[in-house]
């Protein structure tokens, strides 16, 4: 008659938030009757169970075996926890657990509300272990806090102290492959948990993509899961120096794991894509994949330096795809608005390339995850070290096809608005005239009406499917009540002609601005929307400022820059929200440099860039932004540019710049400095909105100057030919 195998109690620790997933994993290893506690699972099992967890658990942090419990007797309120830990340690014969020749270390965890100096308490617990050895065998083991042969875990509690042998030794998240690090990497066991939550095995993907791969953790953990590679196959464990270690049992488990991995390697694997905008991350990923033992299948992994805006054609149609990534933007961009813009851009890319496929994306704040266009969503909240992270898992919604508003617009049927008949007729006629052009050229943002009639002195601009209506302040000679009545008639007419409701119409009054008021904030409503122009997605603000962030009259100039920018170094002076720089970048510019005095506009610029998947946060930035006076910036630098765009204000006296800028007075000095920074074969585009502007003869004599105003004014501004003037300036041929 054989006796039943001896059962022991084991603790399996994990990051808070992983308890349920870890329970499922342990059940998959054949372990039942599991007690779930915060950050810890407890079960009774055989040594083989503990060994299998050490070998196979992708989610656990440590496997602990409680050895000794020291109960506390309360004789008075004032406790000396450090001495309690010493008494508990010396009361057990530790020579039964490991040899005095072994090195050891102690990890102390203290329950809440227990006041103790943990460093001193750990030292006293160590003294107790050493004194126990001296009493038992007359020899003492040595301390090694970096690579001990035995690790002891002590939980100091209110009623008892539990002394455990740490069978895992080092934390189980350390698989041994992470030789090269990048900033803020995700822990290996958290990456595995996210893959498990997304059910990567059930998906059986043909394509796996991490577009911001960092040091390659998601790619490697995916490889390990799909090739049935045990995470503990090549690392050392804390039970190696334990007197109770069953080496034969462990070697059998290890041999079985190696055989399973070799068998799985014979099966087809998906195509892996690992991209990052940082070349150092690309190098780290490749080296870590090799260190993980996957060098033989490197041909299955496309590892490249790419931004989100530079994705290749994945040819994913008809294939199952899985996208998983840990974007670095949570800490680097800083403000929530920039982070939200980035996640909106990432979401749009996923919708375009991988509709109806599965994705798992990490966010630093839940608000970031909420903008991802996913169906069937699940959210996993975890702690990556001391930082909370949110992982949104779901099916990517297909991108909805957005067409220019005028494509579906038809003349509306409505009752005549008394007193505004001429205005409604003119607005409707303008829209009918512009419709064919807007639909053919894919124009989403345009001017529909610009004070065409003297009695209706307003500008009506279309931004996507919203209207921005600016009332030009009437002269003081006009009765305010009469002006107000006419403006209300105009608004009623605009709603009737366009068919848009009140919530889609945003109103501002545009008076002549002077001094510091020209860029002042008008509101705090912050109605920000994304609009399309050419290849670019652009954030516009229809409430807070007099201008929206997108000068519509410069559309043709921006598209011209996009067409000419490929491979060139582009400089944008007085860049405002840097939409011209954005077009240059999306057109393939080798680099873009944007200079503006306003940090507000430069932050807005960065949001525009990250919205389009362009990187703005690396030390060797391809796209740079400088908060500086343009005159000073030109004077101090020496870099040369192939393409320059300058669109200065008519007049400026910003508090950051001592003195004033007047475009007529100062354009000669500005252009001469800028031309010093233009390459011999380069092109400078200069424009401004000052109606009385005249180009100085000195500039025309020094350079090849050609006015191109007509070429840069779109059909929607043909009624107002003086909206701006523009020139193309180059060096004379040598």
Automatic annotation (TrEMBL):
Primary localization class, coarse: cytoplasm
InterPro entries in UniProt: 23SrRNA_methyltr_KL, DNA_methylase_N6_adenine_CS, RlmKL-like_Mtase, RlmKL-like_Mtase_CS, RlmL_1st, SAM-dep_methyl-trfase, SAM-dependent_MTases_sf, THUMP_dom
Keywords, sorted A to Z: Cytoplasm, Methyltransferase, RNA-binding, rRNA processing, S-adenosyl-L-methionine, Transferase
Gene3D superfamilies: 3.30.2130.30, RNA methyltransferase domain (HRMD) like, Vaccinia Virus protein VP39
Enzyme type, top EC level: transferase
EC number: 2.1.1.173, 2.1.1.264
Protein's cellular compartments: Cytoplasm
GO cellular component term of the entry, any: cytoplasm
Reactions the enzyme catalyzes: guanosine(2445) in 23S rRNA + S-adenosyl-L-methionine = N(2)-methylguanosine(2445) in 23S rRNA + S-adenosyl-L-homocysteine + H(+); guanosine(2069) in 23S rRNA + S-adenosyl-L-methionine = N(2)-methylguanosine(2069) in 23S rRNA + S-adenosyl-L-homocysteine + H(+)
GO molecular function: 23S rRNA (guanine(2445)-N(2))-methyltransferase activity; RNA binding; rRNA (guanine-N7-)-methyltransferase activity
One Pfam family here: UPF0020
Superkingdom of this protein's organism: Bacteria
Domain THUMP: 49-167
Function: Specifically methylates the guanine in position 2445 (m2G2445) and the guanine in position 2069 (m7G2069) of 23S rRNA.
NCBIfam families linked to this entry: PRK11783.1
Similarity comment text for this entry: Belongs to the methyltransferase superfamily. RlmKL family.
The protein, known as: Ribosomal RNA large subunit methyltransferase K/L
Taxonomic source organism: Acinetobacter equi
Gene that specifies this protein: rlmL
